[in-house]
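Hi C.,

You asked whether I'd gotten around to modeling the 424-residue construct. I have! Everything is below, sequence then structure, no commentary in between.
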Amino acid sequence: MGDKKTRKIVISVLITLIILIIALFFGWYWWLKNQQKQVDVLATGRGLNNGIPAFSGGSLGSTNSNISTSFKEVGTTTVMQKDGAKGGKQATTTPAAWRVSTTPAAAISISTQGGRARALIVERVSGNVFSVDPLTGEAVRITNTLLPMIYDALWINESDVLLRSMNDRGLMTTFLGHLRAASSSPTGEMVGEYLEVGISAVAAKPDGTSFFSIYPTTEGYAGVTKSADNFNEKRVWDSVTGGWRAQWSGNTIKLFQDGAQGVYGSVYSVEPTQRTSRPLLQGIAGLSAAVRSDELASIYSESYVGSFSTYLKTPAGTRTLPIRTLGEKCAWSPQNPTMAICAVPENLSEEALPDAWYTGSIHFNDTLWVVHADTGEVRELLNPGTFFGIPVDVKNPSIDDSGLFLTFIDANNSTPWLLRISEL
């Protein structure tokens, strides 16, 4: 009797165990199935088993068509006449004042290699270089080498360029790039090498043979010149303080102290051959300046709390200009030494200038004005905000060596602009 009872208990336990094992098996199965669904969703999102995407350039678009389209705004932009009126028909050539591309750019520069002017544009996101005809708007892609997040660029000559970025530690990096034709593609490539980490300022010699850079040392900061192929380094300048911007024009390198409201700044001229320096402007609060290549004229601004003024300095003396703008929003004409073009904010905020503009906490709606250095007179040239219907905040204005083109970057969105000065 006892054996039968024991047998029943064993059988019951075994049946219970079998049921539990079956339940666990099905539970494990459904859990794995649910996990696989999640894996499939992630894999699909990453493109697994979706096939190779094919872009026709139509409504779907493509990288190439998007880049090409960014330069085609000129085809439907109204034409700027000399009197500032809008043309009534579609442009067949580029207008006298136009946004060259809707894609953000690190820099725009005019090249006249081969006797024909073209605008060289470095794309900010990819570092790719484009050449744009300033008269027809035709865009040609020169390089297809990915160098991401280029925030600034400086052309040494038509083939060599300095590309500025940040590394993963937040330190400034400078890539010396050389444009090379590719053997198996119509689009060339960018080859080169990274320079010293932490370079804070660069400038290119006007003849395109060399460049200047400032980098930190154990004693402070050093300024050196190198040839365009990164050889023949010469130390030409030293400083115990940082915060300098550089510009090489004429035979000298101009060094500008980064300005801050109420903080005194200076501009120095460095003669690289003799390795000497001398002050051009000194003891000016919130200094922001544009110095003519011969150093005989300067436009600069001075900023205190509650006070902001713009001045013109020439051998005849210093006078207050009737316009108020940051000095670095001005560009001197290489062909007409008595003329400069300045971008003047319509509503200039005096709050922490130039600091707030440097950090991007404020933006301006600029109007372009011509300044005559011989008389101090000014006249309005163009109001982009009124004409184009969008505000333009001018950064890095430059007039090319021919004196025909004004280029700049719009600080609002980093888009490149080009103006044919004689037609305005």
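If it helps when you're writing up: Confidence is low (pLDDT under 50) at residues 39-64, 74-92.

Thanks,
B.
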